[in-house]
């Protein structure tokens, strides 16, 4: 062997271990996100991931994200697909998806982002303060919020006495609360069920046949995803609507009322980061939203020939014209 080649080999052999020690890759943490809409995934990437990066979890360095998007009818396939990626945390938006993850894995922690049902009453947690299992995160208590929204719709359209409730087949508690509120307001409430876009045309045809005068759209992730479609159908049916998020008023609902989604997502990021850092999910208290938004779409009001009460406009955080 030539001397120059020998020196090069020795130099490389001596130097390599030090380079390797200096560039030891960090352990990659895997997060699987299950959602009914690409819009929610986009929001996760734009809001949750920068928050995770601030906490030291950076994609393509020490964090890997897999996303699993589909309709409720695709569960439990999506959760099984998510669990197959061997995640350290699963983020899920519905009770159905969470139960499917629990069935598919006996170990993976789950962050609710964010379900409408009370996790204690449905058996996902022992208490909000001390969940005690593998599920924690954010809960909206959607039945109570849906009841409040029906009251807001009544304020917006006090002349409407026959109100439609559009709900999913997995939201009986929401329907029960909305019916209770309707009864207290002296309203007749008629329930219509839909789970996917293929159901919408028939549902709105049934609403026309029932001669309803207003529409309360219940808290269902698919309804948020399809806000523009539902709003268009509602305007064509001459139905003023109330929806679960303020942003849905931008999509055409007359009124949108609900928690601040960005604030909720930042809290979700905190849960994910703490679990990735080693915190047991059962020891992380389940939170409820504290910041709410209220929006009104005057363009929709004009299309429906409605005048929104000034008292309601004065309370709105945002008005779309």
Draw up the topology in text.
Blueprint (H helix, E strand, L loop, with lengths): L2 H20 L6 E7 L2 H17 L8 E7 L7 H7 L5 E4 L2 H10 L5 E6 L19 E5 L2 H15 L5 E6 L4 H13 L3 E6 L6 H11 L3 E4 L3 H5 L1 H10 L4 E3 L3 H4 L4 E5 L1 H16 L15 E6 H7 L5 H6 L2 E3 L1
Parallel strand pairs: 1-2, 1-3, 3-4, 4-5, 6-7, 6-8, 8-9, 9-10, 11-12
Antiparallel strand pairs: 10-11
Helix pairs in contact: 2-11, 3-4, 5-6
Descriptive overview:
The protein has 321 residues and is of the alpha/beta class. The protein has two domains: 29-139 and 260-283, Response regulator (Rossmann fold), CATH 3.40.50; 142-259 and 292-320, Response regulator (Rossmann fold, 3-Layer(aba) Sandwich), CATH 3.40.50.2300. Helix content is 44%, strand content 19%. The chain is built from 13 helices and twelve strands. The protein has helices spanning 3-22, 38-54, 77-83, 95-104, 142-156, 172-184, 200-210, 221-225, 227-236, 247-250, 261-276, 298-304, 310-315, and strands at 29-35, 63-69, 89-92, 110-115, 135-139, 162-167, 188-193, 214-217, 241-243, 255-259, 292-297, 318-320. The strands form two sheets. Strands 7-6-8-9-10-11-12 form a seven-stranded mixed beta sheet, sandwiched between helices. The chain has a five-stranded parallel beta sheet with strand order 2-1-3-4-5, with helices on both faces. It is elongated and about 60 Å long. The chain starts with a helix and ends with a strand. Mean pLDDT is 90; it is low at 1-24.
């Amino acid at each position: 062997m030539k001397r120059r080649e020998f020196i090069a080999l020795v130099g490389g052999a001596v130097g390599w271990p030090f380079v390797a020690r200096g560039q030891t890759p960090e352990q990659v943490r895997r997060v699987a996100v299950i959602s009914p809409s690409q819009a929610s995934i986009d929001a996760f990437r734009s809001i949750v991931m920068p928050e995770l990066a601030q906490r030291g979890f950076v994609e393509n360095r020490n964090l890997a994200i897999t996303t699993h998007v589909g309709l409720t009818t695709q569960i439990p396939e999506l959760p099984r697909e998510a669990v197959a990626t061997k995640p350290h945390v699963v983020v899920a938006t519905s009770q159905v998806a969470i139960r499917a993850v629990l069935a598919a894995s006996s170990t993976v922690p789950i962050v609710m982002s964010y379900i409408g049902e009370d996790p204690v009453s449905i058996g996902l947690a022992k208490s909000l303060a001390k969940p005690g299992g593998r599920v924690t995160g954010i809960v909206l208590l959607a039945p109570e919020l849906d009841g409040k929204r029906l009251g807001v719709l009544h304020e917006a359209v006090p002349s409407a006495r026959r109100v439609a409730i559009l709900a999913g087949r997995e939201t009986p508690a929401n329907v029960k609360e909305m019916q209770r509120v309707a009864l207290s307001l002296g309203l007749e409430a008629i329930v219509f069920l839909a789970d996917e876009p293929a159901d919408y045309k028939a549902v709105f045809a049934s609403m026309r046949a029932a001669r309803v005068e207003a529409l309360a759209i219940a808290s269902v992730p698919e309804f948020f995803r399809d806000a523009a479609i539902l709003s268009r159908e509602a305007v064509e049916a001459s139905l003023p609507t109330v929806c679960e998020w303020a942003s849905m008023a931008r999509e055409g609902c007359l009124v949108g009322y609900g928690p601040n989604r960005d604030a909720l997502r930042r809290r979700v990021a905190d849960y994910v980061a703490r679990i990735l850092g080693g915190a047991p999910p059962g020891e992380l208290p389940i939170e409820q939203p504290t910041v709410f938004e209220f929006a009104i779409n005057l363009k929709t009001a004009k299309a429906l020939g409605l005048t929104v009460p000034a008292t309601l406009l004065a309370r709105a955080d945002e008005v779309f014209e």
